[in-house]
Write a structure and sequence with these properties.
single chain; 945 residues; alpha/beta; Rossmann fold; 7-stranded mixed beta sheet; globular
Length: 945
């Protein structure tokens, strides 16, 4: 079978048409490596539904894949060649986001932090946020909230096409006057940029939080804070106002619940179970802990400069709680650095996520020991003290917590097996030294050859050998990304999945990995930040986990502060038991896990007795009480949730539509491969894909990954190569003699054209505005007797093989073709105009509501002043002295003058509001102005035999 270059050009163009989100989303899904659930597609389409929208809040409950939803939106923007894309996320999630974008959507990203930012500046880059300029290639820019706020000036200089804000509830208190500095800086820097906010808890304690988030998205959505409070902030909101607010929010906030997705059949959720193991440190271990702890509490330390005290002591305390082996190494480095009068920060590299802590501790100065400040006698004494700690650490032969680990592992494996899981466990520690020591200990206690280490560098010999073997195994396949960090992680995770029993992880190493095949997690060291704990558990307890998971923690019976930390995380934050993600509402209710970590650090640093520790933890719990008692009140439910039946029915419809559209798209992809390779005999088609020579290609990403086959898609590899080859702007006119083979095709409409001939034309139409470009191929054909062929039939004809291709035959059917093109073009223009009318109507309604809010605010101010005047008059009558009455009279006159001035300005203010509304509408009209272009791809005479 032969096919012409003209047919391949038609396919190449049809596979890459730009359109409104619902039309072009199929391309993005087909190019991804993830099975989309319908609610995720719905959320992404909601975010892309109007090109005029200033942004949306995606508020699905936890565990439903908001990361996938936002990535889908980013991938869609990337496909539209919009490259100025920004992701602002918590510092601990930067690498995870980068990995997800690369692995699932093949989207490049660049993490911007202090080091890379300063390096770019030194290299002459004026603004490192211009990632393409900084790196030499386009990439999605990723940074933390703290960093973005610090660099607000540079951030504001970039005309971002889209900004995604993860964990956006961090910004919801922007409406408060006494705080939310980060939120206010970001609001100013990102004004006018389209945004997607992700938060499972956009509304927690007050309806004003919702106002805060929406005001960052779009300052013209609600009026001012006072009018919002007056309309919607009342204790018992009446039904009409509540319904109005719900209707307004439905345009900007999308929320799906776990039970709705479960009912639709998309995701099944598992449980998590808690297991604890008590231990009591030996006398030597307790002595080392006590003495080093008291040392860290001193104010006169020479080894730690005051500007870096919080960061350094926090990290040393974490190492101290990890193992005496880790403490020994840290003490040796501290002694060496102090003797050389060098910064102690180098001693902290044992903590693998140090960069995250440095990013969060933005106010601390560089740590250094300054010669002129040092008393030689004091220096010598401090070095001797550190040496005494080192001697004490050297004497410690056993480790009570490690012995508890050996005890609990067997019991935990039994529990995991009982729940149906495999005999695998991921063990988390905060120290690289402890990680190495634990590997040796476990290897000598029955786990030799069954251990994989994962940390931020993986420079050990075993990891290098695993990486080398993995590279050889997957040589030439799409599994190899080219990023050593990503590929090293992939190699180690594969080793753990296929062969090992234990994976010992540090915090930094575990970022961005998914371990759903494992259902047992051991917190050897327990972080103080509840969000970090949840992030750890999320490595195994996530979408795709088939079994209930077990989380093991250790309780130090010799340290009351450690016991209280576990109680706080377990009982108050409910991290270790319950349904998948049940802790998300609680985690979302706290402003920052970093703040809680700081508070706990203060307790460790300042308390010198168990009584003090009890008192301080009781106070902390009291302070968190209001935040931790999650109230799912009726107002929040009625504002953010939809009726189950409607949602489930809509998700079912979406699933069917996505499946059908994806199937059609993949059929066209397969047809492109068939047209290209059939003629030379190298093409063999199977149920799961096709062979070209010795290489097998699959259109199903899961099948390709499972069997280590190449993935055939248009975003890279062979698919991209074919598109670039065949997607030409204009082909010469030709004659195509199509062959209808009834044994292969059963199209009655095409069969009716056998023995007929005519003319066909493929025209590409582009209708664009500054906000959106829509493309369509107009397929027109006419027979030599003047009969117009339906576009669907033309598409089928173009899929037939040809017997011959040559010079076009003389036919005079141009008039009929021109008329059909004009008709199809007008239909397309009408569709675009209809959509634009809807976009415009939505914006008009939004602005009318905004203007109404502003006018209500004026009315409220006058009523407030009238009330104040009335109360002031009443109060003045009850005053005793003349002086008091005169002062009250002056105050009353001042209020009356203010009220009169507001009334005088009332109509002028209303006029200004109307003028602003008109100006905004004119801007919208200009943004919707259409530009129509027609491009002839080819014209041909045809025959069907």
């Amino acid at each position: 079978m032969n096919y012409s270059s003209h047919q391949k050009a038609w396919l190449a163009h049809s596979l890459t048409l730009s359109g409104k989100a619902e039309e072009s989303m199929t391309q993005t899904i087909a190019n991804s490596k993830v099975d989309m659930n319908p609610h995720q597609v719905e959320a992404a389409l909601f975010a892309l539904s109007s090109p005029l929208s200033s942004g949306v809040i995606l508020a699905d409950e936890v565990g439903l894949g908001k990361t996938i939803e936002a990535s889908l939106v980013l991938a869609q923007k990337w496909a539209e060649r919009k490259r100025k894309l920004l992701l602002i996320v918590p510092a601990t999630l930067r690498k995870q986001w980068s990995q997800e974008l690369e692995e699932k959507f093949s989207l490049p990203s660049a993490i911007l932090e202090a080091t890379t930012f300063n390096a770019a500046l030194k290299s002459g880059i004026a603004n490192p946020f211009e990632v393409e300029v900084s790196t030499g290639k386009p990439a999605i820019c990723i940074c933390s909230y703290e960093f973005a706020a610090r660099k607000e000036v540079e951030l504001a200089r970039v005309s971002w096409d889209l900004v995604v804000l993860d964990e956006a509830h961090k910004l919801r208190n922007i409406y408060k006057t006494d705080g939310a500095k980060t939120a206010k800086k970001l609001e100013l820097a990102l004004q006018g940029r389209k945004k997607v906010m992700l938060s499972a808890t956009p509304l927690q304690n007050s309806i004003l939080e919702l106002y805060g988030l929406v005001s960052i998205l779009d300052p013209h959505f609600f009026g001012d804070l006072n009018s919002f409070k007056a309309r919607y902030g009342r204790q018992n909101l009446d039904e009409i106002e509540l319904a109005l607010l719900h209707a307004r929010l439905s345009k900007v906030c999308n929320r799906t619940l776990r039970r709705q997705v479960q009912e639709e059949g998309g995701i099944s959720f598992t449980h998590r179970y808690s297991m604890t193991e008590d231990f009591r440190p030996s006398a030597e271990e307790e002595q080392l802990y006590t003495e080093v702890s008291e040392y860290l509490q001193r104010e006169d330390l020479l080894s730690i400069k005051s500007g870096a005290r919080h960061l350094v002591t926090l990290v040393i305390r974490k190492i101290l709680a990890s193992s005496s082996y880790a403490v020994l190494g840290t003490l040796e480095t501290m002694i060496n650095r102090l003797e050389q009068k060098l910064p102690i920060i180098e001693a902290l590299q044992d903590l693998d996520c140090l960069n995250d802590y440095q990013d969060e501790d933005e106010d601390e100065d560089e740590d250094a020991v300054e010669d002129e400040d040092i008393d030689p006698v004091a220096l010598s004494a401090e070095i001797e003290l550190l040496r005494s700690f080192k001697e004490l650490a050297l004497k410690i032969s056993g480790n009570a917590k490690a012995e508890a680990l050996l005890r609990v592992l067997t019991r935990a494996f039994d529990k995991t097996s009982e729940l149906g899981g495999s005999r695998k466990a991921v063990v988390f520690t905060e120290s690289v030294r402890t990680q190495t020591w634990l590997a040796e200990l476990l290897a000598s206690n029955g786990y030799s050859g069954q251990i994989v280490l994962l940390n931020g560098s993986n420079n050990d010999a075993a990891s290098k050998a695993i990486y080398k073997e993995w590279l050889e195994k997957h040589h030439g396949s799409t599994r190899i990304s080219g990023s050593k960090t990503a590929d090293m992680k992939a190699a180690l995770v594969d080793k753990f999945k296929d062969e090992a029993t234990l994976m010992i992880c540090t915090e930094a190493g575990a970022e961005g990995i998914n371990l759903q095949f494992c259902s047992l997690l051991v917190n050897y060291d327990l972080p103080w930040n509840p969000q970090r704990v949840e992030q750890r558990i999320g490595r195994i307890h996530r979408y795709g986990q088939k079994h209930d998971v077990v989380v093991v923690n250790f309780i130090n019976k010799g340290n009351r502060a450690d016991e209280r930390v576990f109680e706080l995380l377990s009982q108050k934050f409910q991290l270790f038991e319950g349904v998948f993600g049940a802790s998300d509402e609680i985690l979302g209710s706290i402003e920052s896990g970093v703040d809680i970590e700081r508070r706990i650090y203060d307790i460790y640093q300042n308390c010198r007795s168990d009584d003090q520790i009890e008192h301080e933890f009781n106070q902390l719990q009291e302070q968190l009480k209001e935040q931790l008692e999650v109230k799912v009140n009726e107002t929040r439910r009625s504002l953010l949730e939809n009726f189950d039946a409607d949602v489930v029915e809509r998700l079912n419809t979406r699933r069917n539509r996505v499946t059908a559209q994806l199937s059609q798209y993949q059929k066209k992809l397969l047809l492109l491969a068939r047209m290209t390779f059939t003629s030379d005999g190298s093409f063999t088609e199977t149920e799961n894909g096709f062979n070209v020579g010795e290489t097998f290609y699959s259109l199903d990403w899961a099948y390709a990954v499972k069997h280590d086959h190449s993935l055939f898609r248009v975003s890279d590899g062979l698919g991209l190569e074919l598109l670039e080859r065949y997607k030409v702007d204009r082909l010469e006119n030709t004659h195509l003699a199509f062959v209808y083979e009834p044994e292969d095709t059963h199209w009655a409409d095409v069969k009716n054209l056998v023995s007929q001939k005519g003319m066909l034309r493929i025209t590409k139409v582009s209708i664009g505005s500054s906000e959106e470009k829509r493309e369509r191929l107009i397929l027109t054909a006419i027979t030599d007797i003047g009969q117009i062929v339906h576009p669907e039939t033309v598409e089928r004809i173009l899929q037939l093989p040809i017997s011959v291709q040559g010079k076009p035959q003389p036919l005079d059917s141009h008039v009929g073709l021109d008329g059909d093109i004009s008709h199809q073009l007008q239909v397309f223009i009408s569709e675009v105009e209809q959509d634009n009318e809807r976009y415009y109507a939505e914006e008009v309604e939004k602005l009318e509501r905004w203007a109404e809010d502003k006018r209500i605010a004026l009315d409220i101010r006058i009523k407030q002043l009238d009330l104040e005047i009335k109360q002031a008059r009443k109060a003045s009558r009850q005053l005793g002295t003349l002086q008091e009455k005169m002062a009250a009279k002056r105050a009353l006159k001042s209020l009356e003058r203010e009220r009169d001035q507001v009334m005088l300005n009332y109509h002028e203010e209303k006029k200004l509001i109307e003028q602003e509304e008109d100006r905004l509408l004119e801007e919208i009209e200009a943004r919707l102005k259409l530009d129509t272009r027609l491009e002839l791809i080819f014209e041909a005479t045809w025959s069907v035999n």
